[in-house]
Amino acid sequence: MTVEVCVKAATGAPDHLGDCPFSQRVLLTLEEKKIPYQRNLVNTTVKPQWFLEISPEGKVPLAKHDGKWVSDSDVIVQILEEKYPEPSLKPPPEVASVGSKIFPSLVKFLKSKDPNDGSEQALLEELKALDDHLRQHGPFIAGEELTAVDLSLTPKLYHLEITTGHFKSWAIPENLTHLHNYMKLMFSRESFQKTRAPKEYVIAGWEQKLNA
Predict the structure, then answer these.
(1) I need a surface site. Which of 67, 94, 119, 133 has the fewest CB within 10 A?
(2) Catalytic residue at 20?
Protein backbone atom coordinates (compact mmCIF):
# COMPACT_ATOMS: atom_id res chain seq x y z
CA MET A 1 0.00 0.00 0.00
CA THR A 2 1.36 3.41 -1.01
CA VAL A 3 1.77 6.06 1.69
CA GLU A 4 0.87 9.58 0.61
CA VAL A 5 3.03 12.37 2.06
CA CYS A 6 3.25 16.14 1.75
CA VAL A 7 6.72 17.69 2.04
CA LYS A 8 8.22 21.13 1.50
CA ALA A 9 9.01 22.30 -2.02
CA ALA A 10 12.14 24.35 -2.66
CA THR A 11 11.97 28.11 -2.09
CA GLY A 12 11.72 29.71 -5.54
CA ALA A 13 11.60 26.30 -7.25
CA PRO A 14 8.28 24.64 -6.33
CA ASP A 15 8.89 21.63 -8.60
CA HIS A 16 11.93 20.59 -6.56
CA LEU A 17 12.31 19.10 -3.09
CA GLY A 18 12.87 21.78 -0.45
CA ASP A 19 14.99 22.32 2.61
CA CYS A 20 12.86 20.91 5.46
CA PRO A 21 14.89 18.44 7.61
CA PHE A 22 11.67 17.15 9.18
CA SER A 23 10.25 16.34 5.74
CA GLN A 24 13.48 14.58 4.83
CA ARG A 25 13.33 12.56 8.05
CA VAL A 26 9.95 11.13 6.97
CA LEU A 27 11.20 10.42 3.44
CA LEU A 28 14.32 8.72 4.84
CA THR A 29 12.14 6.50 7.02
CA LEU A 30 10.01 5.49 4.02
CA GLU A 31 13.12 4.78 1.94
CA GLU A 32 14.91 2.75 4.64
CA LYS A 33 11.79 0.68 5.30
CA LYS A 34 11.26 0.33 1.54
CA ILE A 35 7.66 1.54 1.83
CA PRO A 36 6.13 2.71 -1.49
CA TYR A 37 5.08 6.36 -1.25
CA GLN A 38 3.61 9.22 -3.23
CA ARG A 39 5.38 12.52 -2.62
CA ASN A 40 3.44 15.79 -2.90
CA LEU A 41 5.58 18.94 -2.96
CA VAL A 42 4.05 21.91 -1.14
CA ASN A 43 4.96 25.53 -1.86
CA THR A 44 5.10 26.79 1.74
CA THR A 45 5.70 30.41 0.63
CA VAL A 46 2.32 30.61 -1.14
CA LYS A 47 0.40 27.68 0.33
CA PRO A 48 -2.11 26.17 -2.11
CA GLN A 49 -5.75 25.95 -1.08
CA TRP A 50 -5.84 22.13 -1.30
CA PHE A 51 -3.02 21.99 1.25
CA LEU A 52 -4.62 24.45 3.69
CA GLU A 53 -7.78 22.36 3.58
CA ILE A 54 -5.92 19.28 4.85
CA SER A 55 -3.48 21.21 7.04
CA PRO A 56 -5.11 24.33 8.54
CA GLU A 57 -1.84 25.17 10.37
CA GLY A 58 0.01 24.99 7.05
CA LYS A 59 2.77 22.75 8.37
CA VAL A 60 4.81 20.05 6.66
CA PRO A 61 5.44 17.15 6.68
CA LEU A 62 2.05 15.45 6.52
CA ALA A 63 1.25 11.78 5.96
CA LYS A 64 -2.04 10.07 5.28
CA HIS A 65 -2.91 7.38 7.84
CA ASP A 66 -6.21 5.48 7.85
CA GLY A 67 -7.75 8.13 5.61
CA LYS A 68 -6.67 11.05 7.81
CA TRP A 69 -3.79 13.48 7.41
CA VAL A 70 -1.30 13.40 10.27
CA SER A 71 1.28 16.12 10.99
CA ASP A 72 4.50 16.21 13.06
CA SER A 73 7.46 14.08 11.99
CA ASP A 74 7.67 12.43 15.45
CA VAL A 75 4.10 11.18 15.15
CA ILE A 76 4.47 10.14 11.50
CA VAL A 77 7.67 8.17 12.15
CA GLN A 78 6.06 6.42 15.12
CA ILE A 79 3.02 5.44 13.02
CA LEU A 80 5.28 4.08 10.26
CA GLU A 81 7.28 2.06 12.81
CA GLU A 82 4.11 0.51 14.22
CA LYS A 83 2.50 -0.17 10.85
CA TYR A 84 5.69 -1.36 9.12
CA PRO A 85 7.81 -2.90 11.90
CA GLU A 86 10.39 -4.48 9.54
CA PRO A 87 13.13 -3.49 9.31
CA SER A 88 12.96 -2.07 12.82
CA LEU A 89 14.24 1.48 13.24
CA LYS A 90 13.17 1.74 16.86
CA PRO A 91 16.07 3.11 18.93
CA PRO A 92 17.02 1.90 22.42
CA PRO A 93 15.57 4.38 24.96
CA GLU A 94 19.03 5.40 26.19
CA VAL A 95 19.97 6.94 22.81
CA ALA A 96 16.59 8.45 21.88
CA SER A 97 17.66 12.01 22.75
CA VAL A 98 21.28 11.91 21.50
CA GLY A 99 22.00 15.04 19.47
CA SER A 100 18.55 16.51 20.15
CA LYS A 101 19.93 19.94 21.14
CA ILE A 102 22.04 20.39 18.00
CA PHE A 103 19.31 21.84 15.78
CA PRO A 104 18.03 24.45 18.30
CA SER A 105 21.67 25.41 18.92
CA LEU A 106 22.24 25.76 15.17
CA VAL A 107 19.21 28.03 14.75
CA LYS A 108 20.40 30.25 17.61
CA PHE A 109 23.92 30.47 16.15
CA LEU A 110 22.65 31.31 12.65
CA LYS A 111 20.36 34.05 13.99
CA SER A 112 23.03 35.49 16.28
CA LYS A 113 24.37 38.97 15.54
CA ASP A 114 26.68 38.99 18.57
CA PRO A 115 29.84 36.83 18.33
CA ASN A 116 30.16 36.92 22.13
CA ASP A 117 26.67 35.70 23.03
CA GLY A 118 27.82 32.10 23.56
CA SER A 119 25.77 30.61 20.71
CA GLU A 120 28.83 29.38 18.82
CA GLN A 121 30.27 27.76 21.94
CA ALA A 122 26.92 26.15 22.78
CA LEU A 123 26.73 24.58 19.32
CA LEU A 124 30.34 23.41 19.56
CA GLU A 125 29.67 21.75 22.92
CA GLU A 126 26.74 19.82 21.45
CA LEU A 127 28.86 18.68 18.50
CA LYS A 128 31.68 17.62 20.83
CA ALA A 129 29.21 15.60 22.91
CA LEU A 130 27.96 13.85 19.75
CA ASP A 131 31.52 13.14 18.62
CA ASP A 132 32.27 11.65 22.03
CA HIS A 133 29.13 9.48 21.88
CA LEU A 134 30.09 8.20 18.42
CA ARG A 135 33.65 7.49 19.58
CA GLN A 136 32.26 5.21 22.28
CA HIS A 137 29.20 3.75 20.54
CA GLY A 138 29.51 4.22 16.73
CA PRO A 139 29.37 3.82 13.82
CA PHE A 140 25.66 4.70 14.21
CA ILE A 141 24.05 6.42 17.19
CA ALA A 142 22.87 3.08 18.60
CA GLY A 143 26.01 1.16 17.59
CA GLU A 144 25.97 -1.27 14.68
CA GLU A 145 22.29 -0.74 13.76
CA LEU A 146 20.73 2.21 11.96
CA THR A 147 17.77 3.67 13.90
CA ALA A 148 15.24 6.49 13.72
CA VAL A 149 17.64 8.70 15.71
CA ASP A 150 20.11 8.63 12.80
CA LEU A 151 17.35 9.51 10.35
CA SER A 152 16.26 12.46 12.48
CA LEU A 153 19.77 13.77 13.10
CA THR A 154 21.36 13.39 9.66
CA PRO A 155 19.21 15.98 7.79
CA LYS A 156 19.97 18.48 10.57
CA LEU A 157 23.71 17.85 10.29
CA TYR A 158 23.42 18.32 6.51
CA HIS A 159 21.76 21.69 7.07
CA LEU A 160 24.36 22.57 9.69
CA GLU A 161 27.26 21.87 7.32
CA ILE A 162 25.77 23.97 4.50
CA THR A 163 24.38 26.89 6.50
CA THR A 164 27.28 27.49 8.87
CA GLY A 165 29.68 27.51 5.94
CA HIS A 166 27.52 29.84 3.85
CA PHE A 167 26.20 32.28 6.46
CA LYS A 168 28.96 32.16 9.09
CA SER A 169 32.11 31.02 7.22
CA TRP A 170 32.28 28.36 9.94
CA ALA A 171 32.98 24.63 9.82
CA ILE A 172 32.83 21.68 12.19
CA PRO A 173 36.35 21.37 13.69
CA GLU A 174 38.46 18.76 11.91
CA ASN A 175 39.42 17.14 15.21
CA LEU A 176 35.84 15.90 15.65
CA THR A 177 36.81 12.94 13.48
CA HIS A 178 34.09 10.54 14.67
CA LEU A 179 31.41 13.08 13.78
CA HIS A 180 32.95 13.72 10.36
CA ASN A 181 33.10 9.98 9.67
CA TYR A 182 29.49 9.59 10.77
CA MET A 183 28.35 12.36 8.44
CA LYS A 184 30.21 10.79 5.51
CA LEU A 185 28.65 7.41 6.34
CA MET A 186 25.12 8.82 6.51
CA PHE A 187 25.38 11.27 3.61
CA SER A 188 26.57 8.47 1.32
CA ARG A 189 23.53 6.24 1.95
CA GLU A 190 21.28 5.80 -1.07
CA SER A 191 18.24 6.85 0.98
CA PHE A 192 19.93 10.14 1.86
CA GLN A 193 21.05 10.87 -1.69
CA LYS A 194 17.49 10.28 -2.95
CA THR A 195 15.84 12.55 -0.36
CA ARG A 196 18.23 15.45 0.19
CA ALA A 197 17.59 18.96 -1.10
CA PRO A 198 20.43 20.34 -3.25
CA LYS A 199 22.72 22.82 -1.47
CA GLU A 200 21.34 25.87 -3.28
CA TYR A 201 17.80 25.11 -2.11
CA VAL A 202 18.95 24.65 1.49
CA ILE A 203 20.60 28.09 1.33
CA ALA A 204 17.54 29.68 -0.32
CA GLY A 205 15.22 28.25 2.35
CA TRP A 206 17.40 29.46 5.21
CA GLU A 207 17.84 32.89 3.64
CA GLN A 208 14.09 33.28 3.76
CA LYS A 209 13.95 32.10 7.42
CA LEU A 210 16.83 34.27 8.61
CA ASN A 211 15.49 37.39 6.89
CA ALA A 212 11.92 36.92 8.08
Answers:
(1) 67
(2) yes
